[in-house]
Write a structure and sequence with these properties.
By secondary structure, this protein is mainly alpha-helical. The chain is built from five helices and no strands.
Length: 142
């Protein structure tokens, strides 16, 4: 699993800020963590991918591996103004494509069986049962 700092550094690389040449300061890391937690919490409300906010930049982040790219690109878009960096068309496209892939990953096919107690319809005949859910007596039913 990746740490929060690794996601933050990945976002900075997308912006052209190389953490290897100028390490991320503690204040920048904390700001990045706050933005990462905010974004993750927003995305979790709709995607339900298991994100839990991290308390420290060295904590492992609770994300499936398929979400790393989307989080790096999305965070890059969020923190670009803080670093005075524009969002280039290539980064905007990366943000769009990785988020679309994350959306697709989070959608899971749900298969369900209908329970035996489910009505077969409102007075309609059902070929499987050969009977009506409601009787033909309109006074009783309505």
């Amino acid at each position: 699993m990746a740490t929060s700092l690794e996601i933050i550094e990945g976002a900075l690389k997308h912006l052209g800020v190389n953490p290897a040449e100028s390490p991320v300061t503690a204040a920048e890391a904390q700001d990045g963590l706050d933005d990462l937690n905010d974004m993750g919490s927003e995305w979790e409300s709709t995607l339900q991918i298991g994100f839990l906010p991290a308390e420290d930049v060295n904590d492992e982040i609770s994300l499936p591996r398929q979400a790393y790219a989307a989080f790096k690109a999305g965070l890059a878009g969020r923190i670009a103004p803080q670093y005075g960096k524009p969002i280039y068309p290539e980064l905007a496209e990366l943000m769009r494509e990785t988020k679309k892939a994350l959306d697709k990953f989070s959608l899971q096919k749900l298969t369900s069986e209908f329970p035996d107690t489910l009505p077969v319809g409102s007075g309609n005949e059902c070929s499987n049962y050969g009977q009506r859910f409601y009787s033909n007596d309109g006074d009783t039913n309505f």
